[in-house]
Fold this protein.
Amino acid sequence: MGLQAPLWRAVTVFRVAALVYATVLMLTGFRDFTRPWLGWAVLAAMIAWTAVTGVHYHDPAGRNRSWLAADLAFTLACLLASMLVVPAAKLSSGGATLPMAWVAGAVLVWALRGGRRAGGIAALIVGAADLFLRGEITSATVNGTVLLLLAGGVMGYVSRLTDDAETRLQRAVELEAATRERERLARGMHDSVLQVLALVQRRGTELGGEAAELGRLAGEQEAVLRSLVGVHVTAAVAGTADLRLLLGRYGSPLVTVATPATPVLLPAAVAAELAAAAGSALDNVATHCGSSARAWVLVEQEPDAVTVSIRDDGPGIAPGRLAEAATSGRLGVAQSIQGRVRDLGGTVAITSGPGQGTEVELRVPLPR
């Protein structure tokens, strides 16, 4: 039922307690009323409405705008009915209305459903009705409106906190379930396919010749399968993705991927674009540095940004070569790497020199 369910039950309990207070006031003061029978009728309607809303608000589907509007309208009707029951002189001097504190129930449900702003609006509407009822600004109207505003503000704030807590709890549960499933698949893969591929790689290297080539291919497939074990059940949570898993599939005997031990969660679209930019950089290594060039991918997570560095041991980039490539229409670096990261609000730094290899640093700020 969610973390907000206790708050809705608390509002119902508050309304019941406020009804008890209104009943006590009715019993001690109904002899002074101009129409006591109408006062008892209003109290009976308040009791019935409290029971109806208590049952209706128990179901999250019943907490819609139509019911909240009806709740506020009924509360205002009970409050304004005091004009026909309580003597005008008593109201103008700050005397009790028929519903008294019961009117705060509508303000609380508005704040619980719509936040602090909705609670404040409901409090001002009830305060305006109370002012109209009494005919002048008194300490009773001012104090009552201020208390309603405070109650609406506090309930709206607590409602937002419970929403955030529920979202985080759901993400934690999904992450734990995905982690367990990934570990289960990893154990199964390790006990069967991965062990066979590792054996083929080791025996092929020992035998040499064509068997060595077969062993190398087996080693590459082992690395790919290990990354797929993680990608198959990504620890993605409500639109997020673990960058480590997306980059892990680029790992191979020639590409070493180093990531933090904990998940690097980013919005799914951001993680996909950042991983694609890193993949383009690795494609450039394979294309321009030769089939035997090695590359290293390093992921660093900072409090406000994520940095992915791709370094290779190739011949490096001659000065002015990137600008010349962009001028001649070859936009691999300009679009596939720099363009992607720029669209994410990040930066790309390329450090290279003849005979020194190349390092491409992709830095993307974390969303607030």
About this structure: The chain has two domains: 5-168, 239-368.
